[in-house]
Design brief:
This protein is of the alpha+beta class. It has 1 helix and 2 strands; from the N terminus they run E-H-E. The longest helix is centred in the middle third of the chain and has 13 residues, at about 15-25.
Length: about 55
């Protein structure tokens, strides 16, 4: 049985840990690592918990 695992990665420590965990724990699969970036950080609310003060 073929398995394909998608691992999103943003360059952070948690993403590194998730990738390492997947590679160590799943030996009979094909992996695709998706590098996730936020291209327009100034144009989104990403990382902003409370915008009420704006």
């Amino acid at each position: 049985m073929s398995r394909h695992v998608l691992v999103p990665h943003d360059g952070g420590e948690l993403a590194d840990a998730a990738l390492s965990f997947a590679l160590r724990g799943i030996t009979d699969a094909t992996f695709t690592v998706l590098h996730v970036v936020e291209l327009f950080a100034d144009h989104t609310a990403a990382g902003i918990e409370d915008r009420a003060g704006d």
